[in-house]
Design a protein that fits this description.
- This protein is α/β, with parallel strands linked by helices and 150 residues long.
- The chain folds into two domains: 33 residues, no CATH class; 74 residues, no CATH class.
- It has three helices and five strands.
- The strands form two sheets. A three-stranded parallel β-sheet has the order 3-4-5, with helices on one face. Strands 1-2 form a two-stranded antiparallel sheet.
- A hairpin with a 2-residue loop joins strand 1 and strand 2.
- The protein is extended.
Length: 150
């Protein structure tokens, strides 16, 4: 027995079924994507001529903005790579970490064997600031690996 007055379609009231049909129609083609409206003003390009480099959206909502220049608590950068090649570059990286409040950086070197030893040596002066992780050998264990001198 139906507790709602009115007609039912497969156990649902007519307004619910009508709403489902409306959503279905909108999804399948009744709805069109919103058009980009060019900002008003002299020299504004037509929406189909607007280039990404020229797009300067204006917020329509006024919300509080909080600018965070430095983390309140020490940060650990969990994913970086051994981009630097010299000790001076490593030292500059540490200075940047100090400016931004980054306590430690995890270096995912992807290296093995002698190549990994070289990466580890590059960051050794700041071993308290960097955790250098090795890579994996992507060859069967019984075959010689180029990084192992074999």
């Amino acid at each position: 027995m139906n507790s709602h007055p009115g007609r039912c379609i497969r156990g649902r009231s007519v307004p619910v079924a009508a709403g489902c049909v409306l959503v279905f129609i909108l999804i399948l083609g009744g709805a069109r994507p919103a058009r980009v409206v060019a900002q008003e003003g002299a020299g504004s390009p037509a929406p189909d001529q607007l280039l990404l480099k020229d797009y300067r959206p204006r917020a329509i909502h006024r919300v509080p903005v909080t600018r965070v220049d430095r983390a309140r608590y020490p940060v650990i950068d969990m994913h970086s790579h051994a981009y630097v090649r010299t000790q001076d570059q490593v030292d500059a990286w540490v200075r940047t970490m100090d400016e931004l409040g980054i306590e430690r950086t995890v270096i995912l070197s992807g290296a093995t064997g002698g190549e990994f030893d070289a990466v580890l040596a590059r960051f050794a002066r700041h071993k308290d600031r960097f955790s250098v992780w090795c890579g994996f050998r992507h060859v069967p264990h019984h075959l010689p690996h180029p990084g192992d001198g074999g």
